């Protein structure tokens, strides 16, 4: 396991952005959609900070993980564990299922794959 400083810096910056969005924006496109878009990029970059893993496989793993979390919202998992009043958990996991969140996650992963492809292609040429 070798620390990748570039991905670690990206992770820290994305985490700060996500925290600022959560603290200061209570509604709207940036809070509900762009935040989800960034969330999968954040998860991806955190893992890439610590593991040298195939980019495509990791992107798929992160997307599947995000979809699982979203579908757990549909199953009202917070209520099942009596956590619906825990604001921190609600902010991290979300509390309502939205198709638009699935779209945002997918677009975030597509963005990752495009960027990774372009970076790798630049390194090859």
TrEMBL record:
The chain crosses the membrane at residues 7-25, 31-51, 58-77, 97-115. Pfam families: DUF2809. The keyword Transmembrane helix applies. It comes from the Bacteria. Keywords: Membrane, Transmembrane, Transmembrane helix. This is DUF2809 domain-containing protein.
